[in-house]
Write a structure and sequence with these properties.
CATH topology: endopeptidase fold (from Nostoc punctiforme)
Order of helices and strands: EHEEEHEHHHH
CATH superfamily: endopeptidase domain like (from Nostoc punctiforme)
Helix content: 25-40%
Shape: globular
Oligomer: single chain
Structural class: alpha+beta
Low-confidence stretches: none
Distance between the termini: 16 Å
Number of strands: 5
Strand order of the largest sheet: 4-3-2-1-5
Radius of gyration: 15 Å
Mean pLDDT: 94
């Protein structure tokens, strides 16, 4: 595989005052976490790993230290990947920085679960992303089996993929 890099897929919850969206997701999903993210190692500055996520209305990078002022980490999975895979994922992340958060997608996920749909009814264009969708894209790229359309993934779905399956 060549040189090995570490990629973290993590699960967290908001520590903000009155995190209504976080509470709603945790209640709906029956989980302790409401968010998932990736963390890229930083070889040049190992003390500054980079969180990449869909939050704050967009796809964004954030230092781990800043992330931890806003979130409590519930669980993290470390995956060893090749330099080539790291470069592909970082390239994709950079391409998506600033793309809008998929608020309508979240409503479509709930509706899809309630009605048993296999497509997100509120996905009119592919210019928005959710945290779970990003993590699903990453895991699929790394060879994990993703059980449904990434536009329908929830943090709990991503957790189950990491916990129980790898192709």
């Amino acid at each position: 595989m060549g040189p090995v890099r570490k990629l973290v897929v993590g699960f967290s919850k908001s520590t903000k005052v009155l995190p209504v969206f976080s509470w709603a997701i945790r209640l709906w999903e029956k989980t302790e976490y409401s968010h998932c993210y990736t963390q890229f190692e930083n070889r040049r500055h190992p003390e500054l790993p980079l969180i990449y996520q869909a939050s704050h209305d967009m796809m964004n990078f954030m230092s781990r230290s800043v992330f931890l002022t806003q979130n409590a980490v519930i669980e993290e999975f470390t995956i060893e990947i090749s330099d080539e895979a790291y470069d592909r994922l970082m390239y994709k992340a950079i391409q998506l920085v600033g793309k809008p958060y998929g608020v309508k997608q979240i409503a479509g996920i709930v509706l899809s679960q309630l009605l048993g749909l296999d497509k997100n009814p509120f996905l009119t264009d592919k210019d928005t992303y959710t945290c779970s969708e990003w993590c699903g894209i990453v895991l699929k790229e790394l060879g994990y089996v993703i059980p449904k359309d990434p536009n329908l993934l929830t943090p709990a779905d991503v957790y189950k993929v990491l916990r129980w399956t790898k192709s």
